[in-house]
Structure formats: structure tokens, C-alpha cells
Design a protein that fits this description.
The structure is a homotrimer of 294-residue chains. Chain A is of the alpha/beta class and 294 residues long. In chain A, 45% of the residues lie in helices and 13% in strands. The interface between A and B is medium-sized, with 31 and 34 residues.
């Protein structure tokens, strides 16, 4: 990374503070997530120190969202009946002032997904977390070309680098009035007024399914425990990536990595997070910055 | 625990006998469980020595319940269409004289769950297994106060100690004519005529998601292999808790614990269970026992 | 095994070639599978080197099948609404000339399953993969008796040996014009013109749930990466079984085996596969071969 040209000078809260809040408050996090992520998301939320609950049916999802401390919605294995529950839950969370997180899995792939994301975005998510291809698909006009031929991802895996999605993330954050996180090799987070890169993580993480989906749950836990949503998201991403680095030390492959990752999330201290987080506040990217390098 | 005042003197069957029956007969256990528990419940049932089958659709759940040796129903990720399948399956199991187990997850949280539990209880479960908050929610008038402000649990985790639910369990067992198990630090099992405490277990068990849900499946396997339902339930709980104790020896955190637990369930011998089970028959708690200490 | 009487003399492609294609092309594999297998199937496909996507809803399953390189359908936790999505996806895959794999879980158990399998078979699967009891249930007239009393499996586990299903597999392959794989201790694969036994594997594999279902996904990845479907299937089965052999070296039970298996799938080289695959081309079994021994 080149050094930032125009850094917001307000110091960020140390990420360990947000982790301490999660562990002290054990927020009840309602997750409407996909069938692949159900189990690891719950285990990862427990390892983080939160209390996960998977409640999706239209008949109770809104009622539960008012009890929970945060809601997360992931459209991975979408269907119309599940979308109904998502809409009810998101509306209730927004109405009750509870933070909620949207994970628009493979939103570029089908009409059903594009329509679902559009309707969910209308319900004021606190945070949108996706890979580069997904964030570009939500704000396509602002995609920064890299020469590669892409249409926002053919499947669930990103086909664009994070850098190509940074302007899209800013546009989305400004339009929605929310935080947007693009995760990948170097994560990017913005709320339209502030931005940061988070460099923690490990190449083995994308080799385990649903770790991105479970990260959405973890972001929900951090937001649900209180604090500034932008800072909480930055903290959650640094914590998650650092746990990945720790897990890789003991792993012989993606199977053992998945296990070590749960242990690392559980064992990582707030002090270690403050020490080893690699968070770089940067200027908010703008299409008018002619000299910038993305 | 203070020593029991009035112990039923009939000796219980050694728990290893029930485990031997499971392994000898490999009962086919139909599970209608939640999306989080699907995979670990199946793996745990295989490790125990049973043959798991996840069959939930209304169109076949009843037909299958007549083939299976036992049925278990867990309302963790409930929806109306799944409730239809649960009702059909439970009715068929009851009609065919097959044992069936109800796990009323988070029954206190929403109207949908309370209504589902009420309808399922009408279909004569052989065993109801839940945490303290769930059992209290099913027989709320008998909750024993501990001074804490509670309404039967806000999410899926118990907010009440087991001891606070023992009278509720007895009331429920008497009303339903079934076995009731309250699981927690010290498990409590009763059929209204007999009661026991089971002290096996490990603090890491609640840190792995769905272990309670999977225990419901294991209880189904023990009941499906034949024997007295009260004794089978006591044996299943001691076996499960003891495997947790063994698993903890090799675990660095909840990720490795989950793996070691499967290995321990598979490797635990009936002889070891007979030797290390911590089962204490106790007098059936009654609201009329003025001298009792809950 | 006795030596084959009439071996097809054309040499098979070495299995490592198919594995190299999967890793080079990272095929996008759409899986409509059951709730137990969702997570392990995705992790196993990632370990193999493919890109898994779980997309099942009728509203998008066909649209997605045209994007994907292969489709796999597993009826493990079947329901009518999921069957709708399966039929739409299979029809789209067949229409677009994409390979698709059918896994008829427990097809003998209920009317819903028999009807679903019948309708799916009409949509020209490229490969049908099942255990012996399932394949016999699809072509029951050709079951070869072993003296055991069986009706094609009561649950999800096979109650017949592979050998008893070989004639059924040939009949099914000829009738459907597809490849049929019967997996078990010694796998059998045929396309009606060729046949092979694959002896790789380990006794611990059936102790982990959904490994058969995930193998269906792996077969989809091998077919989706191009090549002859019969040879691809043989290669996939040898690769999978050999990974099981490697995994067993480090396992203390089914829990640790599951983890080691993912690591082994990821780490197994194409050269090691070519070296240690135990593939035996055999004559296509026929009911008219009076001297044969099944």
C-alpha cells in the first residue's frame, strides 16, 4: 500500500475494547443464514463469546429480532419463503433500533438475489459485508476496472480484488448511510466519512467454507455489544483475521485449520488483538481523487 | 448436593447395559432437528453406534416413523411447514408404539414455539429433554425462584439453573406420563415416580453448538434400543457427560473439543461407563417437602 | 476377487489426469443436497479444488445451472418444494448440456423418494451414484440375491453388499444411457459398455456422516472439469478412497478422521493418485454370464 494522502486524524478505538464488550455482554445475535453456514456460524459466535440464535420463520423472526441484541441476514441459500422471514426480521430490527448486518451472497448471480438485496437494503442495514464482487454488484456504476473481464462474480467466490470495490463501497455507504465492509486479502471498511484497511488474515481462510458468512455473524456480535459501528466492524475484522493467523500455525490443511480457527477465536485475548491488529486508517476513496492508485 | 432424604431403593440398571444394547442393535433413529444440529447430530449418532436418518417432510415423515426404531423432534429452527412434519411424525410414532423424544428449544421465546410445544406434547412423547429455562416454560407455575429475574430464557441458552426446574420437571412428567430430563451442570431426570441426578459432564460442552440437540438424538437411540425409558435416559446422559470429560483431556478449545468428543463417544466402553458414571438416585422432589432445599 | 473373464482392453486414463483438470479449472459445482451434507460437501469440494455453490430454490436453480459447470442433486432431506427446485435445475442442466449427478438417498424407504427418483431419472443424469441398496431400488428386478432378507435398505445405510447391485447398475446404465456408480467396500462403476472395480477406501469412512453425499459433489467436480464421464467417475472414486486411506493414519476416531480426510483431499497429489489408485477394469457383468460369481 502507498501511504494515504489524506488520513482522518481521529484515532480509532483500540480493537480490543470492542472484543472486551462482546465477552462481557454476550450479545444475543439472531442469524438468518444459509444452510452451509448454520453450524460454523453458531460455533464461531460461541467461540467469540456471543449467544447465537438461528430464527428465520416469518411467524417469529420479527418477534425475536426485538428480543435480540443484533440481527444478521445472509442470503446464501435463498428462497422466497426465507426472504419473507428476512424482510420481517430486518424491518423489526430497524424499527427497534437494533443493529443489523446484511451479507449479500452471490448477489450478482441471479435475479432472485438482486431483487432480495434491493428489498433488504431498503430496510436500513447498519452494515453491509461482502466480497468485492458482491459489493460491486450492489453499486455497479462505480466499479474500478482492473482489466479483468468480470460481471460481479459468477458464483459465491469473488472474482474481483478488494481494491476494485472500494469506490463501490463508499458509494453504497453514502447512499445507505451505513458501514460497508469489503473482505478479501486486505479488508476495506468505510462509513462514507472514514475508511480503513485491515491486513490481518491468512490465505487458508477462503479454503474453509462459510468463514465469510460466519464473519457476518461476528460483526453482528460486535455491533450488538455496543460502540461505534465503523469502529466495531474494523475491530471484528482485525480480530477474525488475527485468529486466522494464529490458527494457521497449527494446521496441516483446511480441515485442521477450521478446528484451530475456532480454538484461536476462543483463546485470543483483547490485549493480543490490540498488539497485533494491522489496521490502517486511510482517506475515504473518491472518484475525484485523480492521483489515487486504485 | 445434600444427601437425599428419601431415596427410591430399587437399584437402577447399570448404564453400560443400555449402551451395549445401542451398539448391538444399531437402532434407526429418525431425527427432525434444526439446521445447526443436522450434521453433528448425525455424526454423534453414528459415533454412538446408531443409524441416523433425517426425514422431516409431512409427505413421508409419518411413513418413516413407522419404519424407525425411535423418533426425535427438536424445534430449534422452527417453521410452520416443519411443524406439520413434526406433528405427522409424532402422531405416527405414538400410534405405532415407537418411543419419541421432544426437545423444546427456546420454547419460552416466541408464540410460535409455545404453540408448537403445546401441540407436540399432546402427542405423548416418551421423553422431554430440555434445559432448565425450557422445562420451566413448559410448566411455569412450578418454577422454584432463585431470586433471579427470568421468563424462561430469552434465547436458546438456559438462564436458570437446573435445580430451579426440578419441580417443573416432576409436574410435567406426572401430567404427561413421560420421562423428563433437565440438562445442565448436574442433570436431573424423573418419570414422576423416580428421579436421579447425573453429575458427568464438562464446562466446555455448552461452548460447542448443538451438543444439547444431538443429545436428544442420543436419548432417542437409547430408547430405541429397548429398555426402561427412565433408566435409558439416565444412561444416555451419563454416557454423554462422561464422553465430554474424556474429550476435554485432549482439547485446546471448543474446536478441538468438538472433534475429541466424537472420538470419545465412539471409543467409550460400556465397562468404563459403568465404572465412571456419576448417577445418584434421589427422592422425587415435591412441593410438599417443606424441608427440601431448592 | 477372482480375475475377470473378459476385460475391456482399452486402457483407462490415469486418474491423476482428471484430478489435475479439477485443480486447474476449479469448476463451479451447483449442489442441491441435504441439510446434513451442506457443510461437509462444500468443504470437501473446496479441498478438492472446486468452487461449490448451494443453490436450490425453484426461482433460481435453473438459471444457476446454466452458469455452473456441473450440477449434483441429492435427495437426502427431501420435500416437495425442494423437489421442484431439483427438477428445474436438472432440466436446465440437461438442456444446457451440463453434466449432472443424481444421488438417490434412501430411495427405497418411502413413496415420496421413489416418485422423486423416477421423475429425476427422466431428466437424463450423467451419473447416478448410490449405495447398493439404493441402486437395487432403482432397478429392483435385477437384484442378485445373497440370501439376506432385504427390501433395498430401510434407512440411509446400505443393507446390501455392492456385488448384489452390480447387475442392477448395468441395467440402470443401459436403460438411462448414463454412468452408474455403486459405492461401498469395493466400488463398482459402469456405463453399460465398460466396468471397473475401485478398491481404495477405509472402514472409517461410513462412520462419518454425509461422506457419500459429499462424494456425489466430488463426482460433479470431476465431470464438470471435462473428460470422459466413466473415467472421471472412476478417478473421483479412487481419489476419494485413497484420501480416506491417508486420513486413517492420523485418526483416533471418526471425529479426527473427518478432519484428517479434508486435509488429505487437499494434500493428495495427482502423482500419488496415479501411483496408489487400485482400479481394476472388469468385464461388464451380464445376467447371461452363467459362469460368473455374483
Amino acid at each position: 500500500m502507498s501511504p494515504p494522502l489524506d488520513v482522518d486524524q481521529r484515532p480509532l478505538e483500540p480493537p480490543g475494547a470492542a472484543l472486551r464488550r462482546v465477552r462481557a455482554r454476550a450479545p444475543l445475535v439472531q442469524n438468518i443464514t444459509n444452510f452451509v453456514a448454520m453450524n460454523p456460524a453458531a460455533n464461531i459466535l460461541l467461540a467469540v463469546g456471543a449467544s447465537p440464535a438461528m430464527v428465520h420463520a416469518r411467524e417469529e423472526a420479527g418477534e425475536f429480532a426485538r428480543i435480540a441484541d443484533a440481527l444478521t441476514i445472509n442470503i446464501g441459500t435463498l428462497s422466497p419463503v426465507w426472504l419473507d422471514g428476512m424482510l420481517v426480521a430486518a424491518a423489526a430490527a430497524a424499527d427497534a433500533g437494533k443493529p443489523w448486518v446484511l451479507d449479500p451472497v452471490a448477489v450478482g448471480a441471479t435475479a432472485l438475489r438482486r431483487d432480495a438485496a434491493r428489498r433488504l437494503l431498503e430496510l436500513s442495514p447498519s452494515l453491509v459485508r461482502g466480497n468485492a464482487s458482491e459489493i460491486i454488484a450492489l453499486a455497479p456504476a462505480t466499479r474500478v476496472g482492473t482489466g479483468a473481464d468480470t460481471s460481479g462474480g459468477k458464483g459465491v467466490d469473488a472474482t474481483d480484488p478488494v481494491a476494485a470495490a472500494e469506490l463501490a463501497a463508499v458509494t453504497l455507504a453514502e447512499r445507505q448511510g451505513c458501514v460497508v465492509a469489503v473482505t478479501g486479502e486486505i479488508d476495506f471498511v468505510t462509513d462514507g466519512r472514514r475508511a480503513a484497511h485491515i491486513a490481518n488474515g491468512h490465505v487458508m481462510m477462503p479454503q474453509v467454507t462459510a468463514l465469510g458468512c460466519a464473519l457476518t455473524g461476528v460483526c453482528g456480535a460486535f455491533l450488538g455489544a455496543g460502540g461505534d459501528p465503523f469502529e466495531c466492524t474494523v475491530a471484528a475484522l482485525a480480530y477474525y483475521g488475527l485468529a486466522g493467523e494464529h490458527a494457521a500455525r497449527g494446521a496441516d490443511g483446511p480441515g485442521s485449520f477450521a478446528l484451530c480457527f475456532i480454538d484461536a477465536l476462543s483463546g485470543l485475548s483483547a490485549d493480543a488483538l490490540d498488539k497485533d491488529a494491522r489496521i490502517a486508517p486511510i482517506a475515504v476513496p473518491s472518484p475525484h481523487d485523480a492521483g489515487r492508485q486504485w
